[in-house]
């Protein structure tokens, strides 16, 4: 009964959703969860019909100065070869994305000073000059001044996952980083007129349903334009190597509830969700997701961007990967934009 009540309430009046409602939905049985997924799918359909949004992602550098306990790119992992794509390579990869008919590129890297402010500005100006792509940046926390200049040079969206909304968990998992600072950066991005994206991982060690419910409410409070919901996958070269991976079912629930709370948001079927379960991408697309971010990183760099093991598409070149995704969209009788 409580499940039915919360499901109806949250899908009709998302702004009135309480922590309690979200907790009820999160703790629903597997059988009940199919109703949740169906509801989320119906809401996605109501707003977006058959349209799936495509954002080509280029992982421009795996250099990272951070020490996040979950991430394979953490600075202390000396077992991976670090790379920094040169500007011409990035511009060429962006042109290739544009020539495929894709309208948005996401430039993502570890958090570092690997690229100077001027290099990023040059990159943005060149991509804008040579293509009609919308540009999303995902480069971690940057100064207000940098963000303002990047906006002026052509970036219009910024993806900065809050990772977890729980201060204590955040400081345990991300030593030397600060949740407040990350949330401040998201506010600054919004003030500068960026469309902001955030998101979190499901299944982190010591994470509770209550934390996940607060993650979802935080996305609502920030009124994000996009939210990436991943699932924790342990990486062998990190201090969390021995922990269990997050539950796929729980991540689907989180995705579906986020759709109810943010009916119009861009919610990608994330690579982590696609990697952890058979047909993970399809499940996500049928449970509220309305976007896919095909990996367009040149093949030579792809396997080096190893945030977690078993990442799908690592051995496919951008053309084959894109073809695979187009076939899937066609098979599901969706269209892409
Ligand atoms: N499992 C799943 N997702 C991860 N990320 C980093 N490490 C892992 C992991 N072990 C995610 C974070 C980050 C994004 C680039 O990858 O959410 O923001």
Can you describe what's shown?
The protein has 337 residues and is α/β, with parallel strands linked by helices. It is 45% helix and 13% strand. Strands 1, 2, 3, 4, 5, 6, 7 and 8 form an eight-stranded parallel β-sheet that branches. Strand 2 (104-109), helix 5 (117-130) and strand 3 form a beta-alpha-beta unit. Helix 2 packs across helix 9 and helix 4 runs parallel beside helix 5 (117-130). The protein starts with a helix and ends with a strand. 45% of the residues are buried.
Entry keywords:
337 residues; eight-stranded parallel sheet; 14 helices; binds 5'-deoxyadenosine
Rg: 19 Å
How many distinct beta strands? 8
Distance between the termini: 39 Å
Major sheet: 8 strands, parallel
> Stretches where pLDDT falls below 50 for ≥5 residues?
none
Number of helices: 14
Architecture blueprint of SSEs:
Layout: H1 2-12, H2 19-26, H3 30-48, E1 51-61, H4 87-99, E2 104-109, H5 117-130, E3 134-138, H6 144-153, E4 155-159, H7 167-173, H8 179-191, E5 195-202, H9 209-222, E6 226-231, H10 248-261, H11 271-276, H12 280-285, E7 291-292, H13 299-302, H14 318-331, E8 335-336
Parallel strand pairs: 1-2, 1-7, 1-8, 2-3, 3-4, 4-5, 5-6
The structure holds 5'-deoxyadenosine.
5'-deoxyadenosine (5AD) binds near residues 70, 161, 232 and 308.
Briefly summarize what is shown.
With 337 residues, the chain is α/β, with parallel strands linked by helices. It has helices spanning 2-12, 19-26, 30-48, 87-99, 117-130, 144-153, 167-173, 179-191, 209-222, 248-261, 271-276, 280-285, 299-302, 318-331, and strands spanning 51-61, 104-109, 134-138, 155-159, 195-202, 226-231, 291-292, 335-336.
């Amino acid at each position: 009964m409580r499940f039915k009540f919360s499901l109806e309430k949250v899908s009709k009046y998302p702004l009135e959703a309480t922590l309690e409602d979200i907790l009820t939905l999160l703790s629903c049985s597997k059988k009940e969860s199919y109703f949740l997924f169906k509801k989320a799918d119906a809401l996605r359909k109501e707003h977006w019909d058959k349209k799936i949004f495509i954002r080509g992602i280029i992982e421009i550098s795996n250099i990272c100065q951070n020490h996040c306990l979950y991430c394979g790119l953490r600075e202390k992992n000396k077992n991976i070869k670090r790379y920094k794509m040169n500007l011409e390579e990035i511009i060429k990869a962006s042109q290739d994305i544009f020539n495929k008919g894709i309208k948005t590129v996401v430039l993502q890297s570890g958090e570092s000073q690997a690229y100077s402010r001027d290099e990023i500005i040059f990159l943005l100006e060149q991509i804008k000059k040579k293509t009609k792509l919308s540009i999303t940046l995902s480069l971690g926390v940057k100064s207000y001044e940098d963000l303002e200049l990047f906006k002026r040079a052509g970036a219009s969206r910024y993806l900065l996952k809050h990772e977890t909304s729980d201060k204590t968990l955040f400081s345990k998992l991300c030593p030397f980083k600060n949740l407040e600072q990350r949330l401040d950066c998201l506010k600054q991005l919004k003030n500068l007129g960026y469309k902001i994206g955030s998101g979190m991982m499901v299944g982190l060690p010591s994470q509770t349903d209550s934390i996940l419910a607060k993650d979802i409410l935080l996305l609502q409070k920030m009124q994000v334009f996009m939210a990436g919901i991943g699932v924790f996958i342990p990486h062998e070269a990190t201090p969390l190597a021995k922990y269990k991976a997050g539950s796929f079912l729980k991540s689907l629930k989180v995705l579906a509830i986020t759709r109810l709370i943010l009916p119009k948001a861009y919610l990608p079927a994330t690579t982590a969700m696609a990697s952890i379960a058979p047909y993970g991408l399809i499940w996500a697309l049928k449970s509220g997701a309305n976007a896919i971010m095909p990996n367009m990183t040149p093949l030579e760099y792809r396997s080096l961007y190893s945030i977690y093991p078993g990442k799908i598409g690592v051995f496919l070149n951008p053309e084959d990967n894109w073809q695979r995704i187009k076939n899937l969209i066609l098979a599901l009788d969706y269209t892409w934009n």
